[in-house]
């Protein structure tokens, strides 16, 4: 995340970080970002990150990234988040997770229409076009959220 923040800042971007207090006490916060919001816990962090987001882009990362991505997919399934979700599958990083989601559909734990909740791109240059071309998602999706 630090390298991404550094890159955005180098290009004149604004970077807002949200970090739980315990991580801030461990000095894990980025010192050079535009704003660092310290919150009570990881749940508040995840809630605030999605609250004002127009879109979510998942970059390769660890268990926290997977937690946040799958959590956002769950929120979208329940029409609690309606924006685009783009998975940047650099070097096929997310292939196994994408296969697991396909299995959720094939085993009928998810409706086939749920596959349109996210898009997958392989190159960073494809992220913005994917956001702009994402199919609309609205509260009508609740009609097929429960299977």
Structural notes for this entry:
It is a single chain. With 147 residues, the protein is an alpha/beta fold. It has 2 domains: 1-52, no CATH class; 56-147, Rossmann fold (3-Layer(aba) Sandwich). The chain contains 6 helices and 5 strands; from the N terminus they run H-E-H-E-H-E-H-E-H-E-H. The N and C termini lie far apart (36 Å). The model has no long low-confidence stretch (mean pLDDT 94).
Summarize the structure.
The chain is α/β, with parallel strands linked by helices and 147 residues long.
Work out the helix count. 6
Instruction: List low-pLDDT spans.
Output: none
Domain count: the total is: 2
Coarse morphology: globular
User: Approximately how much beta-strand content do the residues carry?
Assistant: 5-15%
Helix fraction, binned, reads: 25-40%
List the helices and strands and how they pair.
Layout: H1 2-10, E1 16-20, H2 21-25, E2 35-39, H3 42-51, E3 56-58, H4 63-77, E4 85-88, H5 95-106, E5 118-121, H6 127-132
Parallel strand pairs: 1-2, 3-4, 4-5
């Amino acid at each position: 995340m630090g390298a991404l923040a550094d890159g955005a800042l180098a290009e004149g971007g604004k970077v807002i970080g949200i970090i739980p207090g315990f991580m801030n006490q461990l000095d894990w916060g980025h010192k050079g970002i535009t704003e660092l919001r310290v919150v009570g816990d990881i749940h508040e962090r995840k809630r605030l990150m999605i609250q004002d987001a127009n879109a979510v882009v998942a970059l390769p990362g660890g268990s926290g990234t997977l937690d946040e991505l799958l959590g956002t997919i769950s929120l979208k399934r329940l029409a609690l988040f309606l924006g685009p979700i783009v998975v940047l599958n650099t070097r096929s990083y997310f292939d196994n997770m994408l296969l697991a989601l396909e299995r959720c559909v094939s085993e009928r734990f998810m409706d086939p229409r749920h596959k349109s909740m996210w898009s997958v791109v392989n190159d960073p240059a494809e992220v913005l076009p994917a956001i702009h071309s994402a199919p609309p998602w609205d509260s009508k999706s609740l009609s097929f959220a429960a299977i």
